[in-house]
Amino acid sequence: MKKSIVYWSPCLTKVGTMKSTLNSAISLAKYSENYDVTILNVFGEWTKFRGYLEKKNVRLKNLTFNYYNFLPKYGFFSSRFSYILIILISILSLIFFLKKNRPNYFIIHLITSLPLFLINIINFQTKVILRISGYPKMNFLRKKLWVNSQSKIYKITCPTNQLKEELINTCIFKPEKMDILSDAIINIRDVVKKKNIPGLENTEKIFKDYYLAAGRYTKQKNFIYLIREFSKFTKLYPEEKLLIIGEGEQKKKMEYEIDKLNLKKNIKLLEYTDNIFYFMKNAKAFILSSVWEEPGFVIIEASFCNTFIISSNCKNGPEEFLENGSAGLLFDSNSNNKLFEKLKNHKNLDEDKIFKMKLSAKKNSKKFTIFNHFLSLNKILHNY
Fold first, then answer.
1. What angle do CA 27, 20, 307 make, to 5 degrees?
2. In the prediction, which pLDDT does 199 show?
3. Strands 178-180 and 153-158
4. Sheet containing 309-312: order of strands
């Protein structure tokens, strides 16, 4: 008899977790006949993937109704309002679903507070797997909820050893409850296919020789800092170019900064594209300027495309993946001139050194393929 797996991953915006949830669910359906896999469509956020998921033998179950387009998505207070609304609208429907269907496993990815609260007050007779992708701000209520939920949780997974050790050292979770689970980021067939196809219709009008950055235009991604550091770099090397691909609430601030620093000939902002691999493959280096990442999906994707990585040394992420600077260049996030110095270092690295560092990063990226994720998750589900 098949085991039922249900994913809870309400994504308000196009975050990396959406891709990892999608690929994780698909991996179980693709590589094993022992699982019946469902993603909960909490407020319509997964609707556009319905046809694709059906082809991959993954069910999409509507939990409530589709109000995705009516939710404010950007800005701290707007997004918090949306999260509260999602919780209030979903709570009864989630209780009813879990009581009626009793899935063997319930995998929690985002907006974890609601399902964790419910398992503390109701016995759903299902094994709960909590995915923690980053170390959050640990306020009193969150810590109490996590500690109280521990006995009800089957397993806690996280993507890096650094994060696992931190969660254990803060005495929140017991070591025997925790497992390392690399996210399902790399779909090899998809990357190989897309990296040779131009990502946008007007690609020929974009820079031919460029550095690349990508992500949501938010404070977390720290693109204002990147623009300012790249401005210093262009004073030494006026021919250097930077593409930043994404969308978000800081776009106008970024455009203002580019205009203020007279960088319109050096920096272009491109709209979000489902095919970033073409740009990664052709970039001279990928820059991650984030204040925090766990461990940074885009540097994993760029490394798989054999692109050199320059990354902020933000907590619990890139340092482990880039082997403390052996597989890419690391700089202190938000520190004045630090990224500028690394850009100069990259400019002067010899080809042999660049080749070896890219080779190491690409090797590490293969841990995050869909198949390797399946192997690890399958072991967790079977507890061996």
1. 105
2. 57
3. parallel
4. 267-270, 242-245, 211-214, 285-288, 309-312, 329-331
Q: Alpha helix (H) ranges present in the chain?
A: 16-31, 50-55, 76-101, 113-121, 140-149, 161-169, 188-194, 223-236, 251-260, 277-282, 297-304, 318-321, 338-348, 351-365, 370-382
**Residue 211, number of CB atoms within 10 A of its CB:** 24
How high is the pLDDT of residue 230? 97
Decide: 285 and 346 in contact? Cβ < 8 Å: yes
Token pair, residue 252, equals 């106008």
Nearest to 303, CA basis, from 328, 278, 338, 326: 328
Structure tokens at 185: 């980021």
- Identify whether residues 172 and 51 lie together within a single domain: yes
Beta bridge partners of residue 309, listed in sequence order: 286
pLDDT tens readout for residues 101-136: 999 999 999 889 999 999 999 999 899 999 988 766
Q: Which two tokens stand for residue 356?
A: 């070896």
- Domain match, 175 and 215 both: no
Burial of 199 (0-12, 13-18, 19+ CB in 10 A): buried
Same domain, 231 and 355: yes
- Are residue 141 and residue 198 in the same domain, yes or no? no
Based on the fold, state whether residues 177 and 226 are members of the same structural domain: no
Q: Does residue 303 contact residue 309 with C-beta atoms inside 8 Å?
A: yes
Contacts of residue 51, Cβ cutoff 8 Å, sequence gap at least 6: none
DSSP state of 330: E
Average pLDDT over the chain, rounded to whole?
90
Percentage of the chain exceeding pLDDT 90 = 67
Domain range spanning residue 71?
3-184+369-382
Q: What single-letter DSSP state applies at residue 249? A: T
Q: Which residue type sits at 291? A: V
* pLDDT of res. 14: 76
- Pick from 75-89, 132-146, 229-243, 273-287 the range whose average pLDDT is largest: 229-243
Same domain as 197, residue 180: no
- Tokens 């556009």 sit at which residue? 48
Structure tokens at 194: 């897309």
Longest dimension (CA), the chain: 65
Neighbour count for residue 147 (Cβ, 10 Å): 12
Per-residue pLDDT averaged across 182-209, rounded?
75
Give the predicted TM-score (pTM) of the model.
0.90
